[in-house]
Amino acid sequence: MNHISFKKPAIQGYGSRLRSFRTPNGAFPIRGRLALSVLLIFVSIIFSSCDFNKPEPSSLVGTWLSPYGDGYIIAENSVTYDDGEFYESDWGPGGIFGWTGKIIETTGSSSGYIYIQYETVEEGNPSNYVGKFIAIHYENLSEVAVQLANPYKADGISFAETLEQAKTEFTVENGYFAFHGEYVKK
C-alpha cells in the first residue's frame, strides 16, 4: 500500500509563532516575560496619569445666553460675563456689570466650578475686583444648555483674595449659588 504523507507548511498561523517564543517545556523565556511586564507597566502608567473626570473644555466653550439678556462667552482660557449687551431685555440695555477673567481651573464634568481671576470689570463693578478670584458654578451641562451662577450669598463676600480662598468660600455647600440661570448655546 502506498502511503501519502503531507508535510506541514512552514507557516501555520499564530499558534506556531507563539510556540516558537516558548522554551521546550512550554514556558515563555525570561526575555519575553520581561518585555510583557515592561509593556504592562507602561500601559498602566499612561492610564493612571489620565484624568478621566476632567471636563471636556469644548463642552463648556461657547457663547451661552439667557432669556434675560445676560450671557457668558467661555473660551479655552477665559470667560467674559455680560449682563445684557448681547441684546436688549426687559431690564434695559444693560452692559454695566460685566467682567472678563482668566480661567485658572475647571472641575467636574456635567456640573462643577470654573475658577476665574478677574482681568477687567465694567463700570458697575468696583475696580478693586481686578486680580481677585471668583468661581462660577455650572450644572446640567449638555451640548446645547447649561445652568450657570455667579457666587452670591446675602452675607457672603464678592471676591476672594486667593484661589484657595475662592475654592473654600465659593461652594454650593457654603450657601453660594442658590440661584442658577438657564443658558442656551448660541
Order of the strands making up the biggest sheet:
1-2-3-4-5-6-7-8
Tell me roughly what share of residues is in helical segments. 10-25%
Tally of individual helices: 4
Mean pLDDT: 78
Number of strands: 8
Instruction: Tell me the major beta sheet.
Output: 8 strands, antiparallel, barrel
Radius of gyration: 29 Å
**Assembly state:** single chain
Task: State the distance separating the first and last CA atoms.
Answer: 87 Å
Describe this structure in words.
With 186 residues, the chain is an alpha+beta fold. It contains 4 helices and 8 strands. Strands 1-2-3-4-5-6-7-8 form an 8-stranded antiparallel barrel.
Structure in a nutshell:
By secondary structure, the protein is α+β, with helices and mostly antiparallel strands. It contains four helices and eight strands, in the order H-H-H-E-E-E-E-E-E-E-H-E.
Task: Show the helix and strand layout.
Elements: H1 14-20, H2 30-48, H3 57-60, E1 62-65, E2 71-74, E3 78-82, E4 99-106, E5 112-121, E6 133-139, E7 145-149, H4 163-169, E8 181-185
Antiparallel strand pairs: 1-2, 1-8, 2-3, 3-4, 4-5, 5-6, 6-7, 7-8
Key descriptive features of the protein:
186 residues; alpha+beta; eight-stranded antiparallel beta barrel; 8 strands
